[in-house]
Amino acid sequence: MQLEIITPEAKVFSGEAEAVQFPGLDGCFQVLSDHSAIISALSKGEVKVNLTSVFEQTDDSSELIKTDKSDKKVIRIEIKGGVMEMLNNKVIVLAE
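The structure corresponding to this sequence follows.
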């Protein structure tokens, strides 16, 4: 599935993911490829992304992206809240 994480300042991440875990208002939840349509508010916490391929840090990569030491296909992004939408296998996260 296609994932975009956007803040008011910049696009933090754009790429292909197998699974994404979110800090929801009532607890953490996860979406996988071909998940049904969903819109949800997000609380302060960490977005955990399981990528389809190894994450390569570049000069253009956001400093908000933290790579997992044990699994290079996993990244974590700390957010202060926001909203996410999944529709037609595309996830858009508007985060603070």
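The radius of gyration is 12 Å.
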